[in-house]
Task: structure prediction
Amino acid sequence: MPKVTIDGKVYEFEPGERLLQFCLDHGLEIPHFCYHPAMSIPANCRQCLVEVGMPEIDRATGKPRLDEEGQPIIRWFPKLQTSCSTQLADGMVVRTHRTSDKVQKAHEDNLELMLINHPLDCPICDQAGECPLQIQTFKYGPEGSRFEFLKVHKPKHVRLGPHVMLDAERCINCTRCVRFTDEISKSHQLTIVSRGDKNYPLTAPGEVFDDPYSMNVIDLCPVGALTDAHFRFKARVWEMSKTPSITVDCSKGTNCFYWVRDNLIMRITPRQNMQVNEYWMPDSARLNVEMFNENRPEGPQVRNSEGKLTLTTWEEAYRQAAEALSQVKGTQIAFLGSAYATVEDNYLLRQLALRLKARVPRYIPHVEPGTGDGWLVTDDKTPNAQGCERLGILPVEVEELRRGVREGRIKVLYILEDDPVAAGVFSPDDLRDVTVILHHYHSTNQTLAVADVALPAAMVVETIGTYVNEDGIAQRVRPAKAIQGWNRTLMMEMGKSRLDWHGTPFDRWYNEENMVNCRTGWEAIPAIAQRLGITMRYQGPRHIMREIAEREPAFRGATYEAMGLLGYKLEDVGQPV
Ligand code: SF4
Ligand code: FES
Result:
């Protein structure tokens, strides 16, 4: 195999590899801005410079010439090279800033040049704390500025499109944003305008940057020139916790981070997973922030003698749910599973149905044909239809279920995390004579109008569990924010910000107001089962999933350990079970 020597250490490489990516893959940091592994390499920021040399070859023998100590004589390239664009060659010798004063000086000078016109407004910049320019200046840049003149002024707070703002003065012209629209999303909506130190990215006159993937340029921008129009000035990065998870607005299972401050979701950003979404995320998934914060229910409710839903305790809600289930035969109960809920919760619901001798639950599909884009947005608007079907929970046969309700054969309807009235499965009138037990996320759920027991349910950002995406990849989620009844300190999996780690409930900033009074399915279903004399003894969702991985052939091997952070590809079961 060919070899390269970097800072005195010899490495083997595959032909075709480039120096910067090779160094990054081997844990050798080299500062850079314009390079991105998914896009072309313009080598325009000049930050990744290194010294490169090749052994001198004796033309007569074709072998490297050796010095007095028997070492190959290295002929160094006269200028420093951009490591992002340098292809590795057998025998190449490289000196990075770790071993070369010349490279160190180049990094420092380049950063000084970039900062001549870059405003030093980190204290009010959204990118501060996660800004490659700020971080690299701190590590490799000059101590201070020698520039005493007026900086070049360019347009500020320009709204490029509905979701992206531009501060052209901060731009370092790396062209990552332009290349993204040219090479990845292919909308070609951005280009660099003007020349020299006046240039910056913009749309064509009259054009709006409305690419459905436009917000990816915010993550790509290595300075704070492109910011999120919705998140701007809302929170500093060091105040938030960051939890790895997935998005749930379609069946792609795009990997993401949920960012939380004070138990509110503040923003959603993509997380790299090469087998699911690579580095990207559609704007539609990123804009779902409010769904986790707004219209959340106040607590469990039961319908009183006057026919009104009233707040009650969890104990009373569980008791009434169990009572309703115990008063009818199993065949008179219809269970609806949910393609929004986790595999674990659907599994427990199926166990409950089987123990009560009811039919296996069904789920309501939410497919909107023609709305997918063949990339990261799918027609199926639920995250876990595959998980349901692999458990044998199939799409509901609407007509049959309606008939059962109308003819009085179904007396109790148990609904897990869905809204059959909004989905058009039933009208409120259909359910007038049926006892409805509903696990719901929002106080706007239309089925609440006919619910007899309403159990607020934890959303994906508040639970632990598994979702199976459309490609059969089982991915687990972790709680990003606390809910009432949970002790954040004891929840080892929960995302914690600096304040959460070091604060106590006695701190002035500690606030329980934003903790939703809801329960996860894996707490609520066993609690109801217990009141029916059915034991569901699990130590938590990890334990439930271990049982599923052992017992359900379609989930063979899918333990939390196997899923890790990037998911576990389930064996292909062909057609859904
Ligand atoms: S706006 Fe950001 S990503 Fe675009 S060219 Fe400027 S620095 Fe690069
Ligand atoms: S990263 Fe190499 S020149 Fe920009």
